[in-house]
Amino acid sequence: MNKTQQILFDEPGPRAQRRIRIATVLGAVLLAGALAAAVYQFASHGELAAARWEPFTTWPIWRYLLNGLWATLRAAAATAVLSAVLGLLLALGRLSTHRPLRWLAGAYVEVFRTVPTLLLIYVTLFALPQYGLNFPLFWKLVVPLVVSNSAAFAEIFRSGILALDRGQTEAGLAIGLRRGQVMALVVLPQALLQLAPSLVSQLVGLLKDTSLGFVVSYTELLYSGQVLASYTHLLIQTFLVVALIYLVVNASLSKFARVLQARNGRFGGRRKRRAVELPPALLEGNTPR
Amino acid sequence: MEALTAHLSQLGHGLVTTVELTVVTTVGAMLLGIVVATLRIAPVPLLRAIGTAYVEVFQNLPLLALLVLFVFALPTIGITFPLFTSAAIVIAVYEGAYLAEAIRAGINTVGVGQAEAARAIGLTFGQSLRHVILPQGLRAVIQPIGNICIALLMNTSLAAAVGVVELTQAANNVNLVEAQPIAVFTGAGLAYMLLALIIGQVTGLLERRLAIVR
């Protein structure tokens, strides 16, 4: 029972417990009905036949799909590194004291936050080659993803930097650091620690974006699934397995983000306690007890 | 510029399809989001589990993979819809997971006293949700919901990858004929930015009108 649930209902009494039992049974019946309908639908079209699922117990099929997953992870890693670096530069640009720099970075972020990635992919596929910019397949996927994800990263970094207490910057300036030094030595290390969960969540979004490789025929996981399905004619089985792989990978990443979130909370707590412990003389009579 | 004006009707149709898809899926996703958020905070453990599973699954699967599964694979078990309907269903189901989380965050901002007061005057779980909690919770998260709607607008472009001729696809088709990529794609990009701007303005307006200052 977390806070959300506690605010909405009390510890259930006998009548509420009966209602909860009824709702559980009804929910279970509905769920079972939906599952039965799905199974019936599969069975009546012969998609449940063992022969149509058996290939997914064999190594060659899995090796092919895992190759696709590996390509997905490579594209995601390249996109993540490049867009994190570019995003950080853009965030610093937006917060810069130079007006033109601020304006340019701001325009970049606003434009590429509101233009669909697929449109950028079409530009890379069909427009840039006319101007002599014909990237290899891998970069035809990664470049547009970097362009749009760097805008998202920039916003995450900017909000993290802005969320940090102003006093941190002022203290840095007061001890004679230059603005750049304050940013590098004081502000960024703290902001990045706080942002770790958001950055990992953004990785999930980015990894999902790599499925656009489907459009550029880069053999990442989804396109591999497509190739495999047209070869084996096991359409629905293949795409369900592909979906399951995505689910496992991304749910693990999401879980990692939640762990980081929880850990951050603990960091904050410890810092606060230490601050309270340090000057006991000052705090006497002030601590609520 | 000529490439744009010569194919204005084609691009216009694409734009209309994008707007239709955005409006239909926003409404659908909003309703789904409210239902799923309600499930996630319901007193019944099984319903909570269903809500959590929904959010986990649809936040962690790529939208394009869902579209491909729905449009290309479901027909093999006899489930077919018109293309536009399929795309609308999938996008609504996908964005519903994000809206559910935003709405749940909004519900978390409602003071404990409000819920207790609702219970004290004898409202049931459903009544207190409908009359007390949701109206306040939704108002608290207008801005995040607006951001999700802008993401939804951008995601409607993925329908192009399964054959819906919306703005992105229309721009691509025009470019394949005219070979004027700069004009065509810039035009489409500006249209998306304009639509995003409108959503942003509407959310801003709603927020000013409805936000509760505490």
TrEMBL record, chain A:
It is a multi-pass membrane protein. InterPro entries: AA_ABC_transptr_permease_3TM, ArtM/GltK/GlnP/TcyL/YhdX-like, MetI-like, MetI-like_sf. Keywords: Cell membrane, Membrane, Transmembrane, Transmembrane helix, Transport. Residues 69-257 form the ABC transmembrane type-1 domain. The keyword Cell membrane applies. Gene3D superfamilies: MetI-like. Its main location: membrane. CDD domains: TM_PBP2 (cd06261). It is found in: Cell membrane. SUPFAM superfamilies: MetI-like. The chain crosses the membrane at residues 20-43, 69-91, 103-125, 137-161, 182-207, 227-249. Belongs to the binding-protein-dependent transport system permease family. PANTHER family: AMINO ACID ABC TRANSPORTER PERMEASE, MEMBRANE COMPONENT OF AMINO ACID ABC TRANSPORTER. NCBIfam families: HEQRo_perm_3TM. This is Glutamate transport system permease protein. The lineage of its organism: Bacteria, Bacillati, Actinomycetota, Actinomycetes, Micromonosporales.
Automatic annotation (TrEMBL), chain B:
Coiled coil: none annotated. The keyword Nuclease does not apply. It is found in: Cell membrane. Signal peptide: none annotated. InterPro entries: AA_ABC_transptr_permease_3TM (IPR010065), ArtM/GltK/GlnP/TcyL/YhdX-like (IPR043429), MetI-like (IPR000515), MetI-like_sf (IPR035906). GO terms for molecular function: transmembrane transporter activity. It is a multi-pass membrane protein. SUPFAM superfamilies: MetI-like (SSF161098). Residues 15-203 form the ABC transmembrane type-1 domain. Pfam families: BPD_transp_1. The chain crosses the membrane at residues 21-43, 63-94, 140-162, 182-206. Keywords: Amino-acid transport, Cell membrane, Membrane, Transmembrane, Transmembrane helix, Transport. GO terms for biological process: amino acid transport. One of its GO terms (cellular component) is ATP-binding cassette (ABC) transporter complex. Gene3D superfamilies: MetI-like (1.10.3720.10). Belongs to the binding-protein-dependent transport system permease family. HisMQ subfamily. This is Amino acid ABC transporter permease. It comes from Micromonospora inaquosa.
